[in-house]
Amino acid sequence: MINLQTLVDSAIEANRVAYVEAYRNFCHWADSSTSSCSEESKIRRKGYAEVEFYTFNAIKDSIIRMFPDYATYIEDTFLSYRGEPV
Question: Which pTM does this prediction carry?
């Protein structure tokens, strides 16, 4: 019999790469939006950063909605993935 913790871990692992990629893209676009470029380019880069921000949070929040009793565990696990190579 599969326990709930196994399902939570499987859901997290299935979304790990997408989460890390979205987080990295967010960091890239957020950092580049402060570079010395045109105002139009800064606005575009900020928009890209916002999309990636919502993406990695949507991944985490979707799993939390499925397993609300494991919210802290899910958040901590995804937080630990942020420095990880893809």
Answer: 0.85
